[in-house]
């Protein structure tokens, strides 16, 4: 969604602002702009479309000045055209804004009745006129003007303003949407001050940063000792700066064509990082942060999330119910408030799953849980995020920054973290013994190696994904099927392909086809089955017979045993993707370790409900082929892999 950058330097700021806007591109946007103070006058350049178009405008008409603000806009109110691009400005001040001013219509009416003229269709422009009015009313007292304006604005937003004639000063406020303030030491010892809508936008610039809390506002100057930060009650608060974390975006894409490719490929090593962080070598069991409840007191876990994170929560529902006997309610965050969930503190807790930790729908759902008095857990990738701050416990997923809009490593690290959460719950509730829990853990440690095998030929011309990708790329509609724990992976696979290749795709529970969707089947609709050779395989195979006999081109994603069973069963496969067989890998390990007393427990050992660790490993491993196929299909279609149209990485509006 919208990205904000602000900068005060002793040197011209236009080029560093442009570079920072590029770092904000990953958030998703459809126009961009910047403004600087040139000898006290506000000058601005804007353009619809990508940053490269703004760059061309700047080449023709450069901007000068050492104080400036920049913005990438994801349209909410008003089309993505130049007149709606930020900064919005008049002769007095310029504003960049992220979020929505919900009462903008009444404010606009009030301001227009006073004779103030609007140039855009945006909600953001009311901030310009409100601030201007308060600056006029308060004889140019900017701090007072800013204080007066904030309570008039309803909604969730962050904003930064720059004032004509006031070089070296920026005003910024956080009301729901994140805003970061930072500083660095310039070449000659002078200081540089920054605002950014996330830490990533300031990577390579700021050396020290502070996240504004909700309701806080700041008057930024180049030097930290001259800058002022105020809390929601307008009381001054000290700047407790922290060192800027090292950001992957600063390191770039390496040899990869896109961030998505890089993020897919790094999964084996990222999974190892997650397991090292989560597993206790002494007990050989998972290690979680201290929780404000006991698993044995919990009857229900409520989970909420959006998009890919929602599918991770769905997988966890299967796991927690089967392995730990905890009832799990999973809600799409944007819907939770529109039903009447039965929430009670005591035996119920809640978890919000989010890569960014800033998704507004998830934040609002979380507030509902908290209002009902439930203890809350944030399963997030960004530990400083709003969702993390709002929860009682933070479970970081350790994926590292994810830049591609299509979530990949964030999803699989959510799954791994949820697997560790489930094992802890199962162990503490007595559903898995210590020995069983350790043997599950040891099995999970095979996953990075299995992932590496799966990724071996990713990108190579002889890749086994090529045939399936060609088939999918030619289609207008695609169906993804899965059963049991593979069903959420089918949903995720369908989301992934529609996000980045714009092919219409839907995920279904394999058994649901005959209840309606099978009417869609003909030879133009490829059907991809996510079907590890597991306890549900035979039933899924029957469903594949049903669609194949109606002309569907079936793509089977399974192990060699699954593919052989399909061939023997006479299902004509149009393409096949063969994954390492988890069961065989575990059996070999157990054989090799037979002599060891410690490893007496079979890793495939089943729990009381007959589920084994395979049901934990499969959804994690089988996420890779659906990511790879979406990526490869997008390449074939020539779409923008990292920044697909209309999408934003962090969705900060409801
Ligand atoms: C995933 O590929 C999507 N871009 C999207 O569905 C995403 O997962 C969703 O918006 C939730 O984001 P979050 O995890 O940052 O809350």
Overall SS class: alpha/beta
Query: Considering DSSP H and I runs of 4 or more, what fraction of the residues is helical?
Result: 25-40%
Going across the biggest sheet, name each strand in turn.
3-2-4-1-10-9-11-15
Indicate the overall shape: globular
Identify the CATH architecture of the largest domain.
Answer: 3-Layer(aba) Sandwich
**Beta-strand proportion:** 15-25%
Number of domains: 2
What is the overall number of helices?
A: 22
Rounded radius of gyration (Å): 26 Å
Distance between the termini: 12 Å
Give a list of the ligands. Answer: 2-deoxy-2-amino glucitol-6-phosphate
CATH topology of the largest domain: Rossmann fold
What value does the average pLDDT take?
Answer: 91
| Total DSSP E strands | 27
Under CATH at level 1, the class of the largest domain stands as: Alpha Beta
Unreliable stretches, pLDDT < 50, 5 or more residues? 595-603
Main β sheet profile: 8 strands, antiparallel
Give the full name of the CATH homologous superfamily of the largest domain: Glucose-6-phosphate isomerase like protein, domain 1
């Amino acid at each position: 969604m919208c990205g904000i950058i602000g900068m005060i330097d002793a040197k011209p700021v236009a080029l560093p602002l442009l570079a920072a806007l590029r770092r904000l591109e990953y958030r998703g946007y459809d126009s961009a702009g910047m403004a600087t103070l040139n000898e006290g006058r506000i000058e601005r350049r804007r353009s619809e479309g990508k940053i490269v178009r703004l760059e061309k405008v700047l080449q023709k008409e450069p901007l000068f000045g050492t104080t400036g603000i920049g913005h990438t806009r994801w349209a909410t109110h008003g089309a993505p055209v130049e007149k709606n691009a930020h900064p919005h400005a008049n002769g007095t001040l310029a504003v960049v804004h992220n979020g929505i001013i919900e009462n903008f219509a009444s404010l606009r009416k009030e301001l227009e009745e006073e004779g103030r003229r609007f140039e855009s269709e945006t909600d953001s422009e009311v901030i310009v006129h409100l601030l201007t009015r308060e600056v006029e009313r308060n004889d140019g007292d900017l701090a007072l003007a800013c204080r007066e304006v904030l309570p008039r604005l309803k909604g969730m937003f962050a904003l930064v303003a720059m004032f004509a004639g006031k070089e070296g000063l920026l005003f910024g406020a956080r009301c729901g949407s994140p805003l970061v303030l930072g500083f660095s030491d310039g070449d000659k010892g002078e200081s540089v001050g920054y605002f950014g809508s996330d830490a990533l936008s300031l990577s390579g610039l700021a050396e020290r940063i502070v996240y504004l809390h909700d309701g806080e506002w700041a008057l930024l100057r180049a030097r930290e000792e001259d800058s002022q930060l105020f809390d929601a009650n307008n009381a001054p608060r000290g700047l407790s700066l922290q060192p800027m974390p090292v950001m992957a975006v600063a390191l770039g894409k390496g040899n990869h064509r896109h961030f998505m490719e890089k993020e897919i490929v790094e999964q084996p090593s990222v999974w190892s990082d997650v397991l090292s962080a989560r597993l206790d070598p002494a007990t050989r069991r998972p290690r979680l942060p201290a929780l404000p409840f006991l698993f044995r007191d919990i009857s229900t876990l409520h989970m909420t999330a959006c998009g890919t994170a929602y599918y991770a929560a769905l997988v966890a529902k299967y796991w927690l119910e089967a392995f730990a006997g905890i009832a799990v309610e999973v809600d799409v965050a944007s819907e939770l408030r529109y039903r009447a969930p039965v929430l009670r503190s005591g035996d119920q807790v809640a978890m919000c799953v989010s890569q960014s930790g800033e998704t507004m729908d998830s934040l609002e759902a979380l507030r509902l849980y908290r209002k009902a008095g439930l203890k809350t857990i944030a399963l997030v990738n960004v530990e400083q995020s709003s969702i993390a701050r709002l929860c009682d416990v933070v479970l970081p997923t350790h994926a590292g920054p994810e830049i591609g809009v299509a979530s990949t490593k964030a999803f699989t690290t959510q799954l791994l973290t949820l697997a560790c959460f489930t094992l802890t719950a199962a162990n503490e509730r007595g559903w898995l013994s210590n020995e069983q829990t350790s043997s599950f853990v040891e099995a999970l440690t095979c996953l990075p190696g299995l992932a590496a095998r799966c990724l071996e030929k990713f990108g190579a011309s002889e890749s086994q994904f090529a045939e399936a990708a060609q088939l999918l790329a030619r289609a207008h509609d695609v169906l993804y099927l899965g059963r049991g724990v593979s069903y959420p992976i089918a949903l995720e696979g369908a989301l992934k392909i529609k996000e980045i290749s714009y092919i219409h795709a839907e995920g279904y529970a394999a058994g649901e086809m005959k209840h309606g969707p099978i009417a869609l089947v003909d030879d133009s609709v490829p059907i991809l089955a996510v079907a590890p050779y597991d306890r549900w395989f035979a039933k899924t195979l029957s469903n594949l017979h049903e669609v194949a006999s109606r002309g569907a081109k079936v793509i089977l994603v399974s192990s060699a045993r699954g593919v052989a069973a399909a061939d023997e069963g006479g299902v004509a496969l149009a393409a096949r993707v063969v994954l390492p067989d988890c069961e065989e890998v575990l059996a070999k390990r157990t054989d090799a370790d037979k002599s060891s007393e410690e490893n007496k427990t079979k890793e495939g050992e089943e729990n009381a409900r007959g589920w084994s660790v395979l049901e934990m490993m499969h959804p994690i491993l089988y996420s890779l082929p659906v990511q790879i196929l979406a990526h490869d299909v997008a390449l074939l279609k020539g779409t923008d892999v990292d920044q697909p149209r209309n999408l934003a990485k962090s969705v900060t509006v409801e």
